[in-house]
Amino acid sequence: MRTAPPRKKRTSARGWWLKQLHTWHWISAAVSLIGMLAFAVTGVTLNHAASIPASPKVEDRSATLAPSLLRLLKPTPAQSDAPLPAAVARAVENAVGLDAAGRPGEWSDAEVYVALPRPGGDAWVSIDRASGAIKSEVTSQGWISLLNDLHKGRNTGLAWRLFLDAFAVAAVVFTLTGLLLLHLHSRHRRMTWPLVALGFLLPLVVAILFIH
C-alpha cells in the first residue's frame, strides 16, 4: 500500500487548518462585530468624556403609601440594609414606576431610602416611615452616558455582565484565529510580522514614556 508523500500530507493538513480557522474567524467576527464597533466608539467617548457636554434630565415623582402597607415599615429590621417588604416594593413600583424589590435599603428612624443606580443615570426612592410619603427621583444623563456605562458594565446587572463575558470570548476567538491566519499567510506577506510587532510595541512605548 502506497503512502501519501510528506509534502502532500502537509498541504492537506494546512488546507484543513485554513478551513477551520476561516470558519471560526468569520463566525466569531459575525458574533462580535456589533459589540466591537460599539466598544471602539464608546472607547473614544470615554476617552473624551470631559469634553462631551451632558444635559441631565431629572424627573421627580411623589405618592403616598396606603396605611395598611405603612404598618409594614414600623418595625425596624434587624439588618440596616434590609430591602423593602415585597408588598411595599410592589406598591412603590405602581406609584412611581421604580422597581425597588430586593434592593438594599437604608433604614433610619425617619425614612427608608433605596438607591437605584442605573446605566446612564441614577434613581432613588424614599418612604417616610411616619406619614407614608413616597418621594422618588430619576436622573438621565443621555445616550452617550448610557453607552459609556454599558461599555464599563456599570450598574448593568447580571444579564449584561454575562453578555460581556460571552462577547469577550468571541472577541478572543476572533483575534486568536486572526493571528493564526496571519501565521499561515505570512510567507507570502512579508510585512505581516513587522506590523504585528508595531501593533504590540506602539502602545507599550506610549505607556512607558507618557503614563506616569
Automatic annotation (TrEMBL):
<feature type="transmembrane region" description="Helical">
    <location>
        <begin position="193"/>
        <end position="211"/>
    </location>
</feature>
<keyword id="KW-0472">Membrane</keyword>
<feature type="transmembrane region" description="Helical">
    <location>
        <begin position="21"/>
        <end position="41"/>
    </location>
</feature>
<keyword id="KW-0812">Transmembrane</keyword>
<dbReference type="InterPro" id="IPR032307">
    <property type="entry name" value="PepSY_TM-like_2"/>
</dbReference>
<keyword id="KW-1133">Transmembrane helix</keyword>
<protein>
    <recommendedName>
        <fullName>Peptidase</fullName>
    </recommendedName>
</protein>
<dbReference type="Pfam" id="PF16357">
    <property type="entry name" value="PepSY_TM_like_2"/>
</dbReference>
<feature type="transmembrane region" description="Helical">
    <location>
        <begin position="158"/>
        <end position="181"/>
    </location>
</feature>
